[in-house]
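Hi team, as promised in this morning's meeting, here are the two structures we talked about. I've kept the exact order from the run log so nobody has to guess. The first one is mostly here for context; it's the second one we should focus on when we meet again. Sequence first, then the predicted structure tokens.
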Amino acid sequence: METLKTIDEFVGAAMGFDAEAHPGNLFVSQSSENGFEAEEIVVGDEDSVRKQVTQVFEVLLETERGSYYFHYPFSDPAEIEEIIAKLQPVYERFPKLVLPSEEMAEKVAVA
């Protein structure tokens, strides 16, 4: 398994696979880094301050020819929207399966 540093590298590598000659699956997972909800109340009054909890988006492409992995910690929803938009061509080429974070961790450990 090759871990790529940017979403652009991941998309470029994934699009380099011929999905018909080397079928595969695209696994995606999104979870909060510390197991908390997306927003945790830090101060509990009417002037509440909300802390943005870091979440992790992971994507793993497994094919007969090899595997690519990318993970991205984020706290701003706009960041993940950009990542998902860049992944759209890959979603159209390979079947996408959404996994809970525990299953993704197992797949990454084995790959």
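And here is the second protein, the one for discussion:
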Amino acid sequence: MLIDHHEGYLSWHDFERNQRLITDNATSKGLVPRGALRRGELLLGGLLRCGHCGRKLHVSYSGSNGNTGRYHCRGAQVNHGTDPCIGFGSLRVDQAVSAEVLQRLQPLGMEAAIKAIENRDLHRAGWREAAPCGARTRAGTL
């Protein structure tokens, strides 16, 4: 690989960051697997850690269709034979985090939509100016 041989789509820093993310998403690698979520629909699966012992929380599903999720820590139970550290249902937590993320991203989405409309209008205006009088353009007739 030739670094800075020519201009790339990503900066070298962004490329290295993406490589680290890909490595971190590999499952079952190393002593403390970080890993991507393997299955299921819980929003925070693979991201939460126990407030008592610091281990990654497990995800389990139950209910008649197997779609009712729970986060729980089995670290102390598995390693020391004691009671599980914590466990809680996913519904309220996932809803609260979803609402917060959407609230934070909404202004950015509006900003991006406005910018896209402005860029489209500038692009159309450029086609109109470049066309000879009476000619049809991509944006329609003049």
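Starting points for discussion:
The CA atoms of residues 77 and 101 lie 33 Å apart.
The first helix runs from residue 12 to 24.
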